[in-house]
Amino acid sequence: MATLPISSNGTSLDQNPKAVQNWVQNLNQATQKDDPLTLGPELSSELIGYAQGITTSTSVEELILFEPFTFVFTNKAYNESTLAVLGSTPMLQKYRELPIVGGTGVLRLARGLISYQAYAYNSTSGDGTIEVDMVVLHY
């Protein structure tokens, strides 16, 4: 089991040209904001990597999420190896599955699936943690 804290501060960016120019000028001082991938639900758990991706709604009839993302592993055994996940799931389903559609490094040509569920969610801040179980086949 690995857990993935997901953060979203719920704020929108100012998109006027002057604000965008200021944002770009300050970009070189910013650090990338990836979500940590840990062995347990606490942020103090062993860090094994991070996740990058998006979640978006894809249906007007029901709550269906389209979720393309990548797990990037930074621990010794899988250093800089990745798993690519891509699929759609019903948002209100307790347990959700997504296919692993590829990988790099030690996980080259990976396939498999992840099964996940919400572990914790703060509706005020938009922060949440999901519990992820993976089955991975690779060469």
Automatic annotation (TrEMBL):
<comment type="subunit">
    <text>Homodimer.</text>
</comment>
<dbReference type="GO" id="GO:0048046">
    <property type="term" value="C:apoplast"/>
</dbReference>
<comment type="function">
    <text>Dirigent proteins impart stereoselectivity on the phenoxy radical-coupling reaction, yielding optically active lignans from two molecules of coniferyl alcohol in the biosynthesis of lignans, flavonolignans, and alkaloids and thus plays a central role in plant secondary metabolism.</text>
</comment>
<protein>
    <recommendedName>
        <fullName>Dirigent protein</fullName>
    </recommendedName>
</protein>
<comment type="similarity">
    <text>Belongs to the plant dirigent protein family.</text>
</comment>
<dbReference type="GO" id="GO:0009699">
    <property type="term" value="P:phenylpropanoid biosynthetic process"/>
</dbReference>
<dbReference type="InterPro" id="IPR044859">
    <property type="entry name" value="Allene_oxi_cyc_Dirigent"/>
</dbReference>
<keyword id="KW-0964">Secreted</keyword>
<keyword id="KW-0052">Apoplast</keyword>
<dbReference type="Pfam" id="PF03018">
    <property type="entry name" value="Dirigent"/>
</dbReference>
<dbReference type="InterPro" id="IPR004265">
    <property type="entry name" value="Dirigent"/>
</dbReference>
